[in-house]
Design brief:
By secondary structure, the protein is an alpha/beta fold. The protein has 2 domains: 126 residues, Aspartate Aminotransferase, domain 1 (Alpha-Beta Complex); 262 residues, Aspartate Aminotransferase, domain 2. 33% of the residues lie in helices and 17% in strands. Strands 4-10-9-8-7-5-6 form a 7-stranded mixed beta sheet, with helices on both faces. Strands 1-2-3-13 form a 4-stranded mixed beta sheet. Helix 3 runs antiparallel to helix 10. Bound molecules: pyridoxal-5'-phosphate.
């Protein structure tokens, strides 16, 4: 007989919102202002609210629903794995784990051959930091300003964007140092590309030499939430060469930039860079189920052949997270989404760039593949952000939030962050959606 789960009585849209506000937290918000939209359904590139109104999902939620909503193959894979084997402790194995690992060998940058499965990007980064420190016997990790690596203590400690520090001064992990971000639009060390000769990478080398005890450098190859900062072509190859010369591991945090987002399987592939550790999550399952991966080379992993890796989670390598990843990779291949992201990006990029000439507050438009940011400034000369982090901290209404709210009224959902928008639709997006 049909079995169905039906909590009773069903809730109206207003009851859903009221209960959520009363019983849950809205993160990174003043709770008094939290008024979540009740989303009842979603399909393809659209989310649908409790009243049936449709919104184009221009940022694929949190830059993660790469296949679009409710891809039937991935949806079915979740049910299928649940029927077959919903859980097994990570000390055992099962075919799904072996199959996914074998598939990762094909899509990940060459040399990454050993995988740790976690349940978020944050958690996969935590594993990366432990692996880097344990395998090198060194303790410091260099990150960069304007980065985001997660919300728990170590991953937040590695986060160079102070978005969480002022609000959570006592919760930051230790042992992380920060180098200048790569931002040719507003170079933090006041250089101009290409005359600079990639001075920001030299700065990082200077840090490695003077700090000593540096286990690893962690970078988002294309910085995501903090404004889709695409480095100049020479930057990552130069950084890798510096790391190799100083025997420091390079960790690529591809939680957001991976899985076709930039028009390559992984952002590092755009520059032929093969990191020692690659961390990813989000698009690996199109975010339908929570899966993070920390991938390392055989050389890094060899340390643990005769040293204990005393790490792991109850939900590590959880079968219901692994099978949908297999389905996602197969769907990406069937729909040729990596190439599609590249060609759709070529369609979208000029349209977005044209906005710059149409509004004095649009300072820069930048991106790669289907990963773009529109940055708002006070004026084109000072390039000062239209709103500041402090204004956000103080609860002041921000222009980006007002624009995003107006876009919602017109049926477009977009991620807005202090002074920029992140434009990163599902990779299945059609030209007509982009025109809209
Ligand atoms: N690293 C990067 C580059 C991210 O963009 C994010 C999330 O946005 C994280 C790590 C944290 O991942 P999660 O939110 O899955 O814990």
């Amino acid at each position: 007989s049909e079995i169905s789960v039906s909590p009773n009585p069903a809730l109206s849209t207003q009851e859903v919102v009221d209960l959520t506000r009363r019983l849950n937290y809205g993160t990174w918000r003043y709770q008094r202002d939290w008024n979540p939209l009740h989303i009842a359904d979603a399909e393809g590139c659209y989310i649908i609210d409790g009243n049936g109104k449709r919104y184009l999902d221009l940022s694929a939620q949190l830059m993660c629903v790469n296949l679009g909503h409710k891809n039937p193959v991935v949806v079915e894979s979740i049910a299928e794995q649940a029927r077959r084997l919903p859980y097994i402790a990570p000390g055992h194995t099962t075919e799904v784990r072996a199959q996914l690992s074998r598939m990762l060998l094909d899509v990940m940058p060459e040399g990454l051959t050993k995988f740790f499965f976690a349940t978020s990007g944050t958690e996969a980064n935590e594993a990366a930091f432990k692996i880097a420190r344990l395998s090198t016997g060194k303790s410091k990790i260099i990150s960069r300003y304007r980065s985001y690596h997660g919300a728990t203590m170590a991953s937040m400690g590695a986060t160079g964007d102070p978005r969480r520090w002022p609000a959570e001064p006592s919760v930051k992990g230790q042992g992380f140092l920060f180098a200048p971000e790569v931002n040719c639009y507003k170079c933090p060390i006041k250089h101009t590309y290409p005359q600079c000769g990639i001075a920001c990478a030299d700065y990082l080398e200077h840090m490695i030499e003077n700090e000593s005890d540096v286990a690893a450098v962690i970078v988002e190859p294309v910085v995501g939430t903090n404004g889709v900062l695409v480095p100049p072509a020479e930057y990552l190859p130069k950084l890798l060469e510096i790391c190799r010369r100083h025997n420091v591991l390079l960790i690529a945090d591809e939680v957001m930039s991976g899985w076709g987002r930039t028009g390559s399987w992984f952002a590092v592939d755009n520059w032929g860079v093969k990191p020692d550790i690659l961390v990813t999550a989000k698009g690996i399952t199109s975010a339908y189920v929570p899966l993070g991966v920390c991938a390392t080379t055989a050389k890094v992993a060899a340390h643990f052949d005769d040293h204990l890796f005393a790490h792991g989670h109850t939900y590590e390598a959880h079968p219901i997270t692994l099978y949908p990843a297999i389905a996602t990779i197969q769907e990406m291949q069937r729909l040729d989404l990596v190439n599609r992201a590249r060609s759709m990006g070529e369609y979208l990029g000029p349209k977005l760039r044209a906005l710059k000439d149409r509004h004095p507050s649009i300072g820069e438009v930048r991106g790669l593949g289907l990963f773009w940011a529109v940055e708002l400034v006070k004026d084109h000369v000072s390039k000062a952000p239209l709103n500041t982090r402090q204004e956000k901290m103080d609860g002041k209404p921000l222009v980006v939030d007002r624009v995003a709210a107006d876009m919602m009224k017109r049926g477009v959902s977009v991620v807005a962050w202090i002074s920029h928008f992140v434009i990163a639709p599902p990779l299945i997006v059609e030209k007509a959606d982009l025109d809209f």
